[in-house]
Amino acid sequence: MNPIYLDNNATTACDPAVVEAMLPFFTEQFGNPSSMHSFGNKVAHALKEARGRVQALLGAEHESEIVFTSCGTESDSTAILSALKAQSGRNQIITTAVEHPAVLTLCDYLEKEGVVVHRLGVDKKGRLDLDEYRSLLSPRTAIVSVMWANNETGTIFPVETMAEMARSVGAMFHTDAVQAVGKIAIDLKSTKIDMLSLSGHKLHAPKGVGVLYLRRNTRFRPLLRGGHQERGRRSGTENSASIVGLGVAAQQALDHMGYENTEVKRLRDRLEAGILPRVPRSFVTGDPANRLPNTANIAFEFVEGEAILMLLNRQGIAASSGSACTSGSLEPSHVMRAMGIPYTAAHGTIRFSLSRYTTEAEIDRVIEAVPPIIAQLRKLSPYWSENGPVEASEQGFAPAYA
Amino acid sequence: MWDYSDKVREHFFNPRNAGPLEGANAIGDVGSIKCGDALRLMLKVDPQDERILDAHFQTFGCGSAIASSSALTEMAKGKTLDEALAISNQDIADYLDGLPAEKMHCSVMGREALQAAVANYRGETWSDDHVEGAMVCKCFAVDAALIEDVVRANNLTTVEQVTNFTKAGGGCSSCHEGVEEILAKVAGERCTAPVPEVKTIEVTPPKAKPVQPRLTNFQRMRRIEEVIESIRPMLQRDHGDIEIVEVDGRNIYVNLKGACQGCMMEQMTLAGIQDQLVEALGEFVQLLPAGLLARAAIPA
Prior knowledge:
The structure holds two protein chains of two kinds. Helices cover about 40% and strands about 15% of the residues of chain A.
């Protein structure tokens, strides 16, 4: 039985063409792109080509707006810290309650250092309130950092509109787009987005390479100082093999953009349509009408996510969960809590994230596997009796909480 | 994914005594609101001698929560209520060949469930009194509540002191920021800034030690043994142990066992015991892992 990988929002398999393109850069193409001799020169050319491909995927106006980094987290940190450093008099950040920890943890830290952080809440479907956003924008706003799409639910935020609103008060706009890039069409030159983070391993490139898009003429301070690499905006010898790999992956993502938004979407919808009617008290979280084509986040009430994952894993199916126990944080997903999903459902959320490699046969196998697993775990659950949830009553389950 | 023992996996995939229990006369419902796990323990108790005839459970929780509930029912069956009450959460974890440190706090609700069930049987009301804080030090499973208590009780001001008292921060260093925040919080309550430790330089010459009579070989061995025996209970409390393998001149070879094996604090533990040995013997000795003995035995 072949394993089924439905955890592509966590990381993706490297495309074989990506691996093939990278290999020479571990052997004969080992030169330092900064060197004056031919060893370095060839690598420098390869990097230029990769830069052009990423530029095309993002729809950036200039090739020089692409800065290669080590990962999405580095790009996020660089963007936010730079905006605070480069604009004296502006010491406020506006972000959302459902950002990735790469942004949220940094903001928590900056708050302790005296930066004012506003975290926009979301409604039950994970949507932002733009009026609340407007009311928070001020001449004190240094940067707005809002993810393009949420990693857990796939819900897409109106970053283009929000960037224009930020520009109207002279604030910078950054978007963590690691989940969106490669899955939905992006054309940065027609937006007011100043900075964008991208992560290679989310789009079939290797881990350890990312991009910070930096709009021309945006005030900037580097995070790493040293050599002149990336025009001094990100020092450190280039990870040439990975950058070349990312270039190929960007090209492939652009080529498959149509497939992603038709066939991958169809399989995702098939998965949901197959599971929901067969499992009572289950529902899709987030905003089903406005989300990434590859993501399905389903809450199974009264059962716990880690237990579901362990049983799925035994059948070779890989997914992920917003449950506390899978993270080690002991708290259920902050995204589910921000949407007001009750604890008994938040703990049972499972994220299935597809890729262009997912097949219909795989989806059908998952549809067969899930309902019996949920039924099996509900038999163990004190919140569930034979026919449905135990309602709060004399017999109801009301534990003494520690 | 968590590194669960085979026994945890086995109890999770094939839980014993799961589901409602007909004729249960002692029911305990407990939960941990932090992570949302919840457990209903159902016992059938013989009113004659308070012996547990049958035990079932229903659990909403992760793999280890289900496995530990399953283990609890197996352990409780056949015991009297008083015997069952003696089962600790650690006993359950031991029964399952151990659980990840992070999981101990939230997923093992056995002791609480037993207390609640017994209270239910005896017509008493039960409320859980154990306070649980966020896990700060993951290496040694030390939570914020414990650190705060210790800092307050002992007027601690540095991370090093907290490590000496609680072990927190003695491993990977990732929690030092968190420990510092607790220190700052408690210091704020005291309205004093944390005072940096001032190391005073000893100016008076150290007193000459009274000359100790030279120990006979036998006395010396006995004394080494006494020191090690006095330390063992402390190690055993942390599920470790130590045994003397060989005494060769001033080299004392020992085996660290149980949780001490491969513990990140191994070097610190050895150094601490060595200090006590030096003190007791009045001579310099070296405490070495027995592994080195084997290496020393191989002729060069």
